[in-house]
Amino acid sequence: MKRALPFVVLAALIAIPASAQLAPGVSGYSTAPTQASEAEYWIMIRKLGLCLADSKRDQAVAFLATEPGSTEEDEAFDNIFHRYRNRCMGNFINANIIRGHVRGSIAEGLVRLMPEDRVERALAVALSPPEHVASLHDFAECYVANNPLVAREFLLQTKVGTKGELEAVRQMAVNFGPCIPSGAEVRVDPVDVRMAVAEALYRVVHDMPAELSEGNE
Predict the structure, then answer these.
(1) Is residue 55, in this structure, part of any structural domain at all?
(2) Distance CA 187, CA 185 (A)
(3) Which of 35, 36, 162, 203 matches a 20 to 30 Å C-alpha distance to 119?
(4) Can you state the angle between helices 136-146 and 148-157, rounded to 10 degrees?
(5) Of the candidate ranges 23-32, 101-110, 119-128, 170-179, the one whose mean pLDDT is the lowest
(6) Structural domain tally of the chain?
(7) Using 50, 70 and 90 to split pLDDT, how confident is the model at 49?
(8) Is 1 inside a domain boundary?
(9) 40: containing domain
């Protein structure tokens, strides 16, 4: 099931999940797990997607092929993390990571590992936005179709959970209009926008017609 409108608020950054924890001994000398800070959470998310895209590419691609919120997504997620432990999580243990953050981070990682010329060819093709926008993912697909190069630069030049990301989304917002349903009251969170845009951009490149890909992976 896709996430429905309205979007969430464009303001402060999302707080980390309450149960995100670091392994014993990471902070100080305690043998008990310690609560992770917001900064530590975002650092982990930045590294997570690229690590999974590199070390578990097939599972990462399979995860993004599922519908958000579906049983298939649950199964694909468990296949990646194996009881919530994975070396790509660094010192984090038993972290209830926000699923959308994982999807977006993996999408960014997969695109970063693709040949640059493949990405450029995919974004040079005229893209068609969805006919109807009923979810955050529809919105992102629409925005990327209309602004592929801006979307690409946004992901390359900013980091998740930073003020730079927030400012970039504010600047991008002037072009959100064509992708917002008429009469809808839409408020967006910069991290949610980033993650949805990353996944939409990944799909554009991943689904590029074979005759344009020239066999590059």
Answers:
(1) yes
(2) 7
(3) 162
(4) 110
(5) 23-32
(6) 1
(7) very high
(8) no
(9) 21-213
